[in-house]
Amino acid sequence: MTAAASTDIVTGSINRGWAARIAARTGGGALRIFLIVVALVWLIPTFGLLIESLRDPAQYANGGWWDAITHPAQLTFSNYSALLKTSAITGSFWNTVEITVPATILVVLIGAAAGYAFAWLEFPGRDALFLVVIGLLVVPIQIALIPVVKLYSALGISGSILSVVIFHVAFGLPFAIFLLRNYFSGIPRDLMEAARMDGATEGRIFFRIVLPLGLPAIASLAIFQFLWVWNDLLVALIFTDSSSQPLTVALASQTRQFGSSIDVLAPGAFLSLIVPLAVFMFFQRFFVEGVMAGSVK
Amino acid sequence: MTQQPGEPIADGPAVGSAVLVADAPTTGSDGRAGKPPRELGQARWLSIIFLGPALILLAVIVLYPLVYSAVRSLFDDGPAGTTGGFVGLRNYGSVFTDPSTFRAVKNNIIWILVAPTVITIVGLIFAVLSERIRWSSAFKLVLFMPMAISFLASGVTFELIYSDQPSRGLANAVTVGIRDTFSSPSLYPETHIRTGGSFTGSASSGYTTTKAYSPGTPVLIPMVGLSLTSPPKGLVSAQPPSTGPGLNGVVWNDFRRGGGGTVGKVDPGELGLKGVHVQALQDGKVVASTTADAKGDFSFPGLTSATYQVKLPASNFAPPFNGLSWLGPNLITPSIMIAYLWVYAGFAMVLLAAGMAAIPRDALEAARIDGATEWQVFRRVTAPLLAPVLLVVFVTLVINVLKIFDIVFVISSGAGANGKYADVLATQLFNAYGQQRYGIASAIGVVLVLVVVPFMALNIRRFRREQR
Fold first, then answer.
1. In order of start, what are the domains of chain A with their CATH numbers?
2. CB distance A182–B350 less than 8 Å?
3. Contact B224/B194 with Cβ under 8 angstroms?
4. I want to staple A136 with a disulfide (CB 3.0 to 4.6 A). Which of A80, A174, A265, B111 is the partner?
């Protein structure tokens, strides 16, 4: 808008008469209203889920969640208190944590080590190997389900949390290596040489120089991986059993009786989104970077 | 690989790995040609330590299954998940001939044709418009938020919206509201003609008198079924039709509270059906139409000469509009696409906005000074400079849409029997897996890889180019 104003000074009113100016001004108002409406439309689904999760489930048959705005008496915490007493749901919530945290840490550690090797260690066939790793980005997880299920049952770890973690780590690695190798190779060569001259071991260089300097990339990677695993449904559907299933699987099994399970589904879904949402709010910049960088998966 | 070092968005604010890489000085890849830092043997030993865990996991969990599935897809399925004999490419043939799998293929094609294009365009529009407001970062935050939410939660959220009953589902509450604003609902959906009278037709086709009336003979149209406990507002008792010029008649509810009265006769206390549309037919053609007044009376003063049949068109009795079946066979895929748009529009917008921020201000200013309109500036300067980022967004969405699973799975399983109309390749693979049809499941998986490869190759090639 300021650019348009400065144009006026240069070109005078030849290009922009009073009509155009009024159009621009009212257009600005219309634009603002339009974007406010868009923002509201984008907020409404989540807001609706929140309200529904706080409503007496008996009311679901009678009317939509918006009824609760005019009848606040419909709101209650009983869904949540009932949900937190359901061991299947609380158990699956902790399963989600137990799957997500190690899967995130391991991808960062293993990916960073490999990224460092690809960026700073000399060994024959390095570039070709790196290309193969990048090439593995094309492999959709769907293709690995059957063979890995068979592999896990041969190893005797079927249905365990460990089995899900291993799967997530392996499929997180191509992207992690790709991202961190690029970032690490931007570390000044002089810094690395100096450390090596001083006799630092590669392990020391890795932990004392590479990891701290790579922190921004690592943060983005960690948030992306955390989000990916926390929100995953497909992998957990295949590899977990009733004792190790995460929240997404526990809830997905309820969607077939959507209407009658709304008292579990709505608060459960809200419970599952509140953690990534908090991460989003607190680490906005890394979050956006992580999602953007990882969108290739 | 969405955005790599050196892309235009690298200069944009706080977005993507591009920023990460741009933060660090770029002496890396070409500066590494110097002498090996350690003895070769030691370096090799070190590389094994650093690379070992990653390579083992990748080989066992990613690479081996790829080979396994490629081989397994060539074999038949024995009973209970065992491997049958070698069948060559027959499983691939089944992917395109089996009706349910082929429906998934078609749905996937629809997804590819529609979703990435629409989301990229919507993202672009939002990116362009949000540049002009002061609270653009808040706007971006709101639109980006769904990216944090699992498809499970989004699926549940949108099932609440798509619920069939207008009283429950937001989508139908809105459509019914809009529709009722622009066209008034029918007045008497539950009434119908008294049986045994001289009428043909039904509530859904409209009622026509079997005999023709001449002016002067009143047309009596007895209806029943009006809710007497809560009748529509403004109804009063019907009266036998007045005898004016032309064709006259009365349409009324031939039943009063408490019963009594004579069938086919206007008795006191029986309500006239105000507002009913009445048509006069001559030789089957509509020659005049009118509306019943408060007492149920209608008249065609202009019709004086011939004989006429009288028709009550079906619009009088149309059942109330109850909204669309969003999760029905026809709309379920578009409905899921809308949910997907809700998730990904912010993603496209943030990437594109970063790309636009990287366009040199000078170019835009110069065009404006030369007298270009805002549209010309966008069309001739912004769009061409933004093309690489548009491609990144589009290709990324294509890759994601090809593999789409979660949101289709969640919404379709909530849609009951209609869920199968939303099937895509990935859900079909999951179904085949559940039925222990591993041959066909492997074939679907290989098809998925094959269709993803060209798009991934595009991304990887660009990345390689930018590395030099």
1. 2-76 (no CATH), 83-294 (1.10.3720.10)
2. no
3. yes
4. A174
Q: Provide the β-strand partners of residue A187.
A: none
Report phi then psi at B183, rounded to 5: -140, 130
> Does pTM top 0.80 for this prediction?
no
Angstrom distance (rounded) from CA B468 to CA B126: 34
Taking the CA of residue B184 and the nearest CA in chain A, the distance in Å comes to 23
Best A121, A149, A297 residue to mutate vs chain B (most B CBs within 10 Å): A121
Which amino acid is present at A185?
S
* Separation CA A139–CA B422 (nearest Å): 24
Whether domain B73-163+327-467 has CATH 1.10.3720.10: the reply is yes
Contacts 24+ apart (CB under 8 A), B75-81: B75/B439, B76/B439, B77/B436, B77/B437, B77/B438, B77/B439, B77/B440, B80/B436, B81/B436, B81/B438
Tokens of B106: 């078609």
Q: What is the ipTM of this complex?
A: 0.80
Give residue-wise pLDDT tens across range B236-249: 888 777 667 788 88
Structural element, H or E, at residue A162: helix A161-184
Nearest Cα to B104, choosing from B390, B332, B376, B338?
A: B332
Task: Report residue B2's pLDDT band, with 50, 70 and 90 as the boundaries.
Answer: very low
The CA-atom distances, in angstroms, between B277 and each of B188, B282, B313 are 11, 17, 7
Any B CB within 8 A of A27 CB:
no
- Host H or E run for residue B354: helix B332-357
pLDDT in tens, A59-107: 776 777 777 777 777 777 777 887 777 777 888 888 899 999 999 999 9
> A14 falls in which pLDDT band (50, 70, 90)?
very low
Whether the CB-CB separation of A221 and A107 falls below 8 Å is answered with yes
Q: Which residues of B touch A152 (CB under 8 A)?
A: none
Strand stretches in B16-88, DSSP E = 75-77, 83-86
How far is the first Cα of chain A from the last one, in angstroms, to the nearest whole number?
A: 38
Between CA B344 and CA B361 the distance in angstroms is 28
Q: What is the DSSP letter of A206?
A: I
Burial of B260 (0-12, 13-18, 19+ CB in 10 A): exposed
Residue B61 touches chain A, beta carbons under 8 Å: yes
What is the nearest CA distance from A143 to chain B, expressed in angstroms?
5
A 67-106 residues with CB < 8 A to B? none
Chain B (400-419) residues lying within 8 Å, Cβ to Cβ, of chain A: 400, 402-403, 405-406, 409-410, 413-414, 416
Q: Give the span between the Cα atoms of A22 and B215, in whole angstroms.
A: 62
DSSP-based helix, strand, coil % in chain B, nearest 5:
55, 10, 35
Report how far apart, in Å, the C-alpha atoms of A232 and of each of A51, A248, A260 are.
25, 7, 25
Nearest to A143 among B145, B153, B449 (CB): B449
Domain boundaries, chain B: 73-163+327-467, 192-317
Determine the longest span between alpha carbons in chain B, in angstroms: 118
Amino acid at B19: V
Residue A279 has which token pair? 């991460």
For B253-297, give the DSSP string.
ES--TT--S-TTS--TTPBB-TT-EEEEEETTEEEEEEE--TTSE
